Amino acid sequence: MNGSIDWIAFLAAMAVVELTPGPNMGWLTAVSAQKGRRVGFTAVLGITLGLSVQLIAAAAGFSTFVAGNEVVYQTLRWGGVAFMLYLAWTAFAETGDSSPGHEAQAEGFRRGFIANLLNPKALVFYIAVVGQFATSESWPVWAQILVLGSLHILLSVLVHAGLVLLGAQLGEQIERWRRLLAVRLAFAGALVAIAAWIAFSTR
Prior knowledge:
Elements: H1 7-19, H2 23-35, H3 37-59, H4 62-67, H5 70-93, H6 102-117, H7 120-128, H8 141-174, H9 181-201
């Protein structure tokens, strides 16, 4: 790519996006605090894969189809909200009786992947925001979106990994209180708030 792409502006914009509180940030911190860093990192892997699928779909032009099809967009939108509410219920039902193992890791991966796959805002983001920086005349737009989007995903991995470490540290401090109703309600309440945030921001 030639110098027509404003790399400083792009990296600054992506940093602001990733550091702004959102569904992945709140959920990752909560799941890492509740189940530990190993489960948190597998959740990061799931989130990354989900975002990668969204990026490929955006580069292929699928976001245009979603943006122009109200039924598909609303299905993805409310599917993401419903999934977060499901996570809120499971967080409330978690009593801490069993320690995180391979099953919990697989669950973290699955939840991270599905939550981002059902987020239409992520799909539109790669066209509406990342696509604005695809200004090079020597590369096709789809290739620029893939490269720029990949940089965004790399930055998101770094931010998410930091959240896992932070959440796991907090989790060690509250391990003995995990079975308390107030703690489970706090985790569930945070996820309900994230569901409301998704519904509001994607309307």
